[in-house]
Amino acid sequence: MKKATPKERKSAGPLQVLKLYTKEVGRTWWLFALVMIAVTGLQIVSLISPLYLRQFFNIISTGEPGAATIHTLLITIVWIGGLGLGAWILQRLQSLSTIYMESYVMSDLYVSAFDYLIKHSHHFFISQFAGTLTRRVSKYAGSFETLFDSFVGSFVPTILYVVGAIGILFARNHVLGLLLAAWSIFFLIFQVYVSRLRQPVRAQRAEEDSALAGTFADAISNQNTIAIFSGAAHEHDNTSAAVGRWRTITLRSWVTDDYIWGAQGFLMVLINISLLYGALRFWERGELTVGDFVLIQSYLLGIFGNLNSITRELRRVYDAFADAGEMVHILQTPHGVNDVEGAKALTITRGDIDFNHVHFQFNDSRPILRDLNVSIKGGEKVALVGPSGAGKSTITKLLLRLYDVESGTIEFDGQDIAKVMQDSLRDAIAFVPQEPILFHRSLLENIRYGRRDATDEEVIEAAKKAHCHEFISELPDAYGTFVGERGVRLSGGERQRIAIARAILKNAPILLLDEATSSLDSESERYIQDSLEGLMEGKTVIVIAHRLSTIMKMDRIIVLEHGTVEADGTHMELIASDGLYRKLWNIQAGGFLQEE
Fold first, then answer.
1. Least confident window among 15-24, 37-46, 74-83, 221-230
2. How far apart are CA 501 and CA 582, in angstroms?
3. Which of 101, 215, 265, 317 could form a disulfide with 242 if both were Cys (CB 3.0 to 4.6 A apart)?
């Protein structure tokens, strides 16, 4: 399997982004309808108001001061005020409807993005920066707010206003109306053309932005290593290089925008002069009134304001498309490990495990397992030993179906694990890794993760069996203590005991131990070994052993070398034979085998 690299990351296009956003908006269609009613009504009011201003100035310019004229002007003022009040009401309706709709949709986007992301394969996550993925989820939801605000606050109002203004101006004077229509069409074509030209720059900027976030996250999460190896200066250079790449593409994007804004400003000056000159000629011929000049300027000011708004929004819009496109690409990437159609829940009766001609490799040049055939009977305790690279840890990943085998099958009680539901498979396995990773949550929550419906009493009982109740009780907040990101506030041995307590609480029929006592001191290990013996009772157990002295009592020891079974037997049988196990035992002399 070829690992993804940052250069291989892709971004979905605007249409793909809009497709997913539209689907989410459809779930709150009634709020969207209210928003559109308010936006449309607001533009109608904005178009009608200048007509009353036209009438107001026509009366002033042609009428004589008098009671009748003042009365007419006051009525006009009342209409203008009423339209202003109506606009205020519509603005409030638009604002509240938008707020509620965006909060619902963004919540759904966060949840749906997380739900899909978290189901990606183990290979996917080890090929990505956690900080980058987190930022992409956040930008995916945040981009919707940007796009929708631009849609209802700029694009739709501008289209409605420009079309309405052209229609009203055309009714007053065909030539001026056609001139404004021609200019608007040209402006739109120009805008679409330059927007398409700058989209690749936008996408590249979004990628560099995510890469920069990943660089920061990688350095921050390895702060301890940086300090130990005096790497601050090196990381400064590394981060400065990433910032430099971000600055280069960001500057190119902004400079491009500035040129475009300049061109648009020139076009606006040109149409303003053209319409005023044309209106002057028609006024000279008696075809337009003073109020028409007010009408034209009102519409032009409204159009320019809307178009300037679009110009400002377009940069945000294309940034939003680029930001969202990275997450949409992930959402469109098939999961590496999937349940097959019609997959059924795994049923464990005996606990037999069979590897049938299993072949697995991470890439074409490095096969890990070669035609592996192993049968483990239910209730049997089996240890896997071998030098680094023999395939021991890979076997646990395949049993948990973090990867699918290249060929062959792995069966539990005769059921191919590739054809059962993944959750049911993992529910049947309790796994204690060599380096447990904990949530930044309370100790109670971390242990309860083994069985999330367990009572506090059951959690504490499991902690006592794992011999972690003692150190937990001494903490100021006891079981309510938060352990820090990945459990960094605890020692390696304490984290391992928490992981063992979690496995004890889960009480699954299959138990996988990846040197579960490697981080413990000798006294703690003795206590834990007693607990593990009780935990192993009645279960099928597979132990990955780096320290051979811990597996002498196993029912069987399977020796792996180059992805195949080199030997299989009890400790005494393997010591008696002149093979790899005996060699490893003599090298170790009861000590440790180099970890895989």
1. 221-230
2. 33
3. 215
